[in-house]
Amino acid sequence: MIHSMTGYAAATGESARGALSLELRSVNSRYLDVQMRIGDELRALEPLLRELIGSRIARGKVECRLAFAPSAASGAQRLDAAALVRLRSLAQEAKNAFPDAAALRIADVLRWPGVVAEAQTDEGEMRALAERLCRKALDELNASRAREGAKLGAAVRERVMAMRRRVEEIAPLLPQALAAYQAKLTDKLREAIGSADDERIRAEIAVYATKIDVDEEITRLRAHLDEVLRTLDAKGPAGKRLDFLAQELNREANTLASKAASAALSDCALELKLLVEQLREQVQNIE
């Protein structure tokens, strides 16, 4: 199944200490690039989250945000008595040195480092909750990426079918275009070299006809288009393979355009190039 690299998911869960929220955002990238946005108090959970994300996502830039909001009734914060004693002692020393200084306000006390201590959370409970939320968010993220991927796959198939029609339109034009070009070239050669015999002219035409023959390009275009469809139906990530095939299709379309021996062939080749470029734009979003 084709997956897009773009998606978003979020999950929130409650613990005895408060609420844990997790967000996943993913965008296009050549490789898997996981970026974590986690507070220091939750940093121990980072390896677990990276492992879970890496096991479910193969490609894309993924941003993971994890935040914890303690509940008011959880007792998650308390005053450190020892820190208060130290602060009072320091305040008294400062008062002795600066008798006219204003006394500490409650707000000043609460902002003093170490006075308000965070209660220790249950590490095992937090780890289990983070794992559950991450798995839930990954399910949601992959579901959204799959829905968008189905649309991208349909768009790629549509371009492949259009390219196939153009290729089949080109094939019947080749003998007629080549014959017309040979006749035109024969007349020009006769004018240019005058008395040259027909054998010399035929040899010159044969050499140039080889240069403008696009039969190999048509064959490779058909093979590449078949491979695109096979890749769309295969299991696992397909983006890198499709990107490579899009480059090969573009190469063959460029060669076809450069060898076009008639206006009709040139028009078809240009339409092929446009379709290939549209396909490449869609493929850039596929995992």
Describe this structure in words.
The chain folds into three domains: 92 residues, 2-Layer Sandwich (Ribosomal Protein S5, domain 2); 41 residues; 136 residues, no CATH class. Helix content is 63%, strand content 15%. The strands form two sheets. The chain has a four-stranded mixed β-sheet, covered by helices on one side. The chain starts with 6 loop residues before the first strand and ends with a helix.
Shape: elongated
- β-strand percent reads 5-15%
How far is the first residue's CA from the last residue's CA?
A: 10 Å
Count of DSSP E strands? 6
**Helix-strand makeup class:** alpha+beta
Biggest beta sheet attributes: 4 strands, mixed
Give the SSE string.
EEEHEEHHEHHHHH
The helix content, as a percent range, equals: 55-70%
Write down the overall mean pLDDT.
83
Distinct helical segment count: 8
Q: How many whole angstroms does the radius of gyration measure? A: 35 Å
Number of domains: 3
Low-confidence stretches: none
At a glance:
This protein is an alpha+beta fold and 287 residues long. The protein is built from 8 helices and 6 strands. The chain folds into 3 domains: 7-74 and 123-146, Ribosomal Protein S5, domain 2, CATH 3.30.230.10; 77-117; 148-283, no CATH class.
Features:
Ribosomal Protein S5, domain 2; 8 helices; 287 residues; 3 domains
Summarize the topology.
Blueprint: E1 7-14, E2 18-27, E3 32-38, H1 46-56, E4 60-70, E5 77-79, H2 81-97, H3 106-111, E6 116-118, H4 123-193, H5 198-212, H6 215-233, H7 239-259, H8 263-283
Parallel strand pairs: 3-4
Antiparallel strand pairs: 1-2, 2-4, 5-6
Helix pairs in contact: 1-4, 4-5, 4-6, 4-8, 6-7, 7-8
